[in-house]
Amino acid sequence: MTHETIRLFVESWTASWTLVLGMGYVGQTLAWPSLSALGGNAAARMLVLASTALALALCIAGFSPAALSVAGWTIGINIIRKTVGSY
Q1: N or C: fewer beta carbons within 10 Å in the chain?
Q2: Per-residue pLDDT tens digits for 25-39
Q3: Could you read off the pLDDT of 52-66 as tens digits, one per residue?
Q4: Do residues 25 and 44 make contact, with C-beta atoms less than 8 angstroms apart?
Q5: Long-range residue pairs from 11-14, CB within 8 A, at least 24 positions apart, any chain
Q6: What phi and psi, each to the nearest 5 degrees, are found at residue 2?
Q7: Angle subtended at Cα 54 by Cα 76 and Cα 75, rounded to the nearest 5 degrees
Q8: Rounded Cα distance, 64 and 67, in Å
Q9: Which pLDDT band, with edges at 50, 70 and 90, does 15 fall under?
Q10: What is the DSSP string of 47-68?
């Protein structure tokens, strides 16, 4: 695997999860229960668990900067999620 492939994978990973959580936020705002499930605690836990596994795999494969990027993004997105959802 090249660094370019890993970079594209990390970008698609973060963009996809941002889209999922964003759609959940829109669902909560519009009171759309089936869509708001994407922004719930279960989805956030799945994000953290999957991102942790991904970061570990990237570290083992020798792509520590990419793992740091995924971990930092996960922490940041959860802080934003908690801040926005606390109104």
Answers
A1: C
A2: 899 889 888 898 998
A3: 999 999 999 999 999
A4: no
A5: 13/51, 13/54, 13/70, 14/69, 14/70, 14/73
A6: -95, 165
A7: 10
A8: 5
A9: very high
A10: HHHHHHHHHHHHHHHT-HHHHH
Taking the whole predicted model, whether its pTM rises above 0.70 is answered as yes
The one-letter amino acid code at 76 reads: G
**Pairwise CA distance, residues 24 & 29, whole Å:** 9
Tell me the residue length of the chain: 87
pLDDT band at 86 (very low <50, low <70, confident <90, very high): low
75: tokens are 């922490």
**Residue whose entry in the numeric block shows the structure tokens 């994978």:** 9
Any idea which residue has 């570290």 for tokens? Answer: 59
